[in-house]
């Protein structure tokens, strides 16, 4: 947890646990050559009591000639704005400010006063709310710069130590308010369960340890498999369904949760219940779409499970632009740039130029050559319209554009963004796919309309 010479930010609420922690670090200060800085946050939840707590902590720091940062933050307003519970809101603000102050003072470690009893209470709270293994795992003794030296010490031991050494502390009356779930668990549920098992807390701590060990192992497996099978693109992650099916359900869920964290930056709001039946539903439903918290959607798409930001599923806005010939134009709505020119063809050029042979296998090139004398100008670029059809090069007869794109296995979310080059009302090129057979270059072509395309990322 510590090394000699560390600069340590100690979070002190003024309550029993944190004051014991404060005294503990005063004793460790010279042993480890620590540079201590005291932190206190007035959450503005208890008015006069909160101010007295802040004054008490400042006095503790001053008495030991230690620098302190005592802050006030309107947590009730934050809770209302973010629609959080009191405990969630207070925790978010506390960690946000701890990280800020730690950065400002260049701290190596931040010390928190969580105890073994906090471990038990947190486990039960998450169990009641329906958490998976990750939620039921232990509060870690060390996570990044945060350390919790009292995490294996019981509240009873702390009480006895404070009493024996006459350590004064503040009593937070909100700790007795049954309006908070943690307090109901602490004062009602745990004592009730101890009637059935006097060693109930120790039993829970053993369970937490087992769950944590199993979770760490499964996380390592899932991390390895996520790296192996995931295809990460801008705003989305693809998971081949065949690869997912080959993995255990436990690992699959963790892979999806990792994907959520990669896309939205955290897994806040995404719980076990959101992933519980998702993978089973994917297998039995030909079409699949599931909304997730955090502006994310999971869809099934041509053999892939796709985790995607919801904004990327919006229909493309209507676009139609005239191409200057010759000329160059960028169309941001379709993420494309087009360059257009006219080429005079001689017989020897035609015979030797591979782009003019009009083989279907070559039609995915992002360069199209069309018979300029068959094209009616002006030439336009637009996205698809209902009822569009064309005569794909190499196929017999006409085909609806919708059917063509389905056959080409182009995801529905991308179809509105395919540039369509038109002459009058006729499609001459579905960019990136096929030109229209009626406008192909032949041995009788004298002038070719050359269109070059570059897609933007």
Describe it for me?
The protein is of the alpha+beta class. It has three domains: 7-201, HUPs (Rossmann fold, 3-Layer(aba) Sandwich), CATH 3.40.50.620; 230-313, Uridine Diphospho-n-acetylenolpyruvylglucosamine Reductase, domain 3, CATH 3.30.465.60; 320-455, Phenylalanyl-trna Synthetase, Chain B, domain 3 (Phenylalanyl-tRNA Synthetase, Chain B, domain 3, 3-Layer(bba) Sandwich). It is 40% helix and 22% strand. The chain contains 16 helices and 22 strands. It has a six-stranded mixed sheet, with helices on both faces. It has a five-stranded antiparallel sheet with strand order 7-8-11-10-9. It has a five-stranded antiparallel sheet with strand order 12-16-19-20-21, with no helix packed on it. A hairpin with a 2-residue loop joins β19 and β20. α5 packs across α8, α5 packs across α9 and α9 packs across α11 (249-264). The relative contact order is 0.08.
Summary, kept brief:
With 457 residues, the chain is α+β, with helices and mostly antiparallel strands. Helix content is 40%, strand content 22%.
Key terms for this structure?
22 strands, 3 domains, alpha+beta, Phenylalanyl-tRNA Synthetase, Chain B, domain 3, 16 helices, 457 residues, Uridine Diphospho-n-acetylenolpyruvylglucosamine Reductase, domain 3, six-stranded mixed sheet, 40% helix, elongated, Rossmann fold
Radius of gyration: 33 Å
Q: Per CATH, which architecture of the largest domain?
A: 3-Layer(aba) Sandwich
Average pLDDT works out at 91
The rough form would be described as elongated
Helix content: 25-40%
Unreliable stretches covering 5 or more consecutive residues: 351-364
What composes the largest sheet? Answer: 6 strands, mixed
Strand order within the widest sheet? 3-2-1-4-6-5
| Alpha-beta classification | alpha+beta
Can you tell me the CATH topology of the largest domain?
Rossmann fold
Distance between the termini: 45 Å
Domain count: the total is 3
**How many helical stretches?**
16
Strand content: 15-25%
């Amino acid at each position: 947890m510590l090394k000699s010479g560390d600069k340590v930010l100690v979070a002190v609420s003024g309550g029993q646990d944190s004051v014991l922690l404060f005294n503990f670090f005063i004793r460790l200060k010279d042993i480890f050559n620590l540079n201590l800085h005291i932190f206190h946050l007035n959450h503005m939840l208890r008015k006069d009591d909160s101010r007295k707590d802040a004054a008490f902590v400042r006095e503790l720091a001053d008495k030991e000639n230690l620098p302190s940062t005592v802050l006030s933050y309107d947590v009730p307003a934050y809770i209302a704005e973010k629609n959080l519970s009191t405990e969630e809101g207070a925790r978010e603000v506390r960690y946000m400010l701890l990280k800020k102050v730690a950065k400002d003072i260049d701290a190596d470690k931040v010390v928190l006063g969580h105890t073994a009893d906090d471990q038990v209470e947190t486990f039960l709270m998450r169990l009641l709310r329906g958490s998976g293994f990750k939620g039921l795992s232990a509060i870690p003794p060390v996570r990044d710069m945060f350390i919790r030296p009292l995490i294996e010490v019981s509240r009873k031991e702390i009480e006895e130590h404070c009493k024996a050494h006459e350590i004064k502390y503040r009593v937070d009356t909100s700790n007795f308010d049954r309006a908070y779930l943690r307090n109901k668990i602490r004062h009602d549920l745990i004592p009730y369960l101890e009637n059935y098992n006097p060693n109930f807390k120790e039993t829970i701590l053993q369970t937490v340890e087992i769950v944590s060990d199993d979770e760490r192992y499964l996380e390592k497996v899932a991390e390895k498999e996520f790296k192996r099978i995931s295809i990460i693109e801008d705003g989305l992650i693809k998971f081949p369904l065949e690869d997912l099916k080959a993995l255990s359900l436990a690992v699959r869920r963790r892979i999806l949760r990792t994907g959520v964290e990669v896309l939205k930056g955290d897994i806040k709001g995404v719980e076990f219940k959101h992933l519980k039946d998702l993978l089973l539903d994917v297998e039995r439903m030909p079409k699949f779409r599931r909304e997730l918290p955090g502006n994310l959607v999971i869809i099934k798409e041509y053999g892939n499970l796709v985790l995607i930001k919801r904004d990327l599923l919006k229909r493309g806005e209507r676009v139609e632009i005239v191409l200057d010939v010759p000329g160059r134009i960028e169309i941001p709505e379709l993420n494309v740039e087009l360059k257009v020119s006219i080429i005079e063809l001689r017989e020897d050029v035609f015979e030797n130029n591979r782009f003019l042979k009009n083989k279907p296998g070559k039609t995915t090139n992002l360069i199209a050559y069309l018979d300029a004398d068959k094209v009616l100008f002006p030439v336009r670029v637009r996205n698809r319209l209902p009822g569009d059809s064309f005569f794909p090069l190499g196929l017999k007869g006409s085909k609806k554009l919708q059917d063509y794109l389905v056959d080409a296995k182009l995801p529905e979310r991308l179809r509105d963004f395919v540039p369509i080059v038109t002459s009058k009302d006729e499609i001459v090129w579905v960019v990136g796919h096929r030109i229209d057979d009626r406008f192909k270059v032949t041995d009788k072509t004298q002038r070719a309309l050359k269109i070059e395309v570059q897609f933007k990322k």
